[in-house]
Every structure is written in C-alpha cells, then in structure tokens.
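Subject: sequence -> structure tokens, single chain

Hey, anyone have a minute? Need the predicted structure for the following. Not urgent.
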Amino acid sequence: MHDVECLWQAHTLLGEGPAWVPALDSLLFVDIDGSRLLIWRRGDARQQEWSLPEACCWLIERADGDGFLAGLRSRIVHLRLSDDGPVVVSDWARPEAHLPGNRFNDAKADTHGRVWAGTMDNGEKAVSGSLYRIDGREVVRVDQPYGIANGPTFSPDGRTLYHTDTAARTIYAFDCSPAGELSAKRVHLRFEGDEGYPDGMCCDADGGLWVAHFGGARVTRFTPDGRPDRRIALPATQITSCAFGGEGLDELYVTTARRGRDDEPLAGALFRLRPGVRGLPPGRFGQAPMQEIPT
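Reply:
Had a minute. Here:
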C-alpha cells in the first residue's frame, strides 16, 4: 500500500539531507562521503549530480530566492545552483574552526526562517558535536555534547523540536519558544536491538514523527506521544533520512547509504513512498514568521 519505488540507484556512500524545493519541483540530496550534490527532477525524472571540492552535508533554500544556505564539511556558505553546478557565493560562518575533526551533519529550517544545524566528529569517535541555531548572521550553540547530531525537525505548531544523538540511539524533544529558545530537554525515544540507529527524520501535518533507521532497513512513524504506529520496510539496510515532497507534499523521499553494504543491490539508492499522509511545507532560511497556530 505504500508503493515503495526506487527512483535512482545513485550509489551514495552516505546519502543524506533530502530537501524538497517546490520552485524546482525537485528533490536535492547529498552524498557526504562521496562529496556529491544530487538532484532528482520530478517532472521528467531527470537525474543530475556534481562533484564538490568539499563535502556538502545539507542545503536549505533561501527565502529571497537567491540559492541556498548550505553546510559544508567545515563551514556554512551561501550557495547557488546553476546549470553548470553549485557555486559558493560567500562564506557565512565557521563556528567550529577550532575543531578541525568535526563536520556538519544535518539541518532543518523552522517557520521563522531560522536554521538548526548539528555537528559531529567526522571519525565518529569523539563526543564533540553540538546543535546550533542560525538566525541571520547570528550562529549560536544551543545544546551539546553529541556523538552524532542528527535529524532536527519540528512539530506542526513549531513548539517542539526533535533532535537526535544517533551514536546514543536517542531522540530528544525540546520545548521551543517563538523566539527560538529551547527548554525542557527530555528523552523522547530510545532505539534498541534490531531497530538500528535513529537517523534523519521529519514530521507530517498530523504531528507524526517519521524516523529513518540506520542499520534497521525501515522508516517508522511515531505518534506525538512516542508510540510506533507504522513501520515501512525498505530493500536497503542503512536508511539515512526522509523528507516529504511532491505537489501535495504526500510523497516521502528516503535516502540511504552503501558504506560497507556493497552486497546490497539497492544500498545507496533514493526511494519514494506514498504513506497516505501529508508533510509540512519545507522551511526556508530568512523567511518571515508564519501566523501562529492557535491552541
């Protein structure tokens, strides 16, 4: 019933950061370990990819239409996408210049135009990662430490931020004020046994939390109170992230990794599911605040 489709066997070593871009009717995603930027165009299923001199870990569309805010391995940049590929317009910030072993990993924009981005030790050994809030030119560390900071996403009303430490197999929830202040950090979910590791995630319009299981060969929808109510198996083991897209935001795009999984024919592929629910519009960097959702 979920119509699992393989859209592109992209052979990503570490596919991540799926971002739906309505203006392009396309999905952008990255191969962090392969230093590639990839785009799948929904209208004609055209596939494009570019090699990068420095790994890109995430992209967030800018509200002014001038490209993207992007997290490269070591820095945040203003990036434009041309017919010839991505072009770095300018550096935005280097919040961890003092930690050369760290890199960015995942990010999401909220409805106020702020970007929330996490970092990690690239060697996956040190617990040196942090969560940052990027508001205009201001970059503020808001939580630490993390082994692998991953998958920030927001509830439909924007009042709950979910954030993961993949290495600790734990998803946290925070209260988030309209001003972007976090409080009441708490454990929301812990993964155990064959569930694998919680990786990238997103929320649907009904408040369900969709989580990619790295090493668990599936995505799971959890209710707002943390109960699993839907599990969708996928023909790859290392599921890395997911994002809603399509004209009606009713398609769930799923990225995967083939690192250490060369025996799996579809490891590193991009998949599309039709889960029967709609997602939330993708946030954009710098956009004006949306109207508050009444209680």
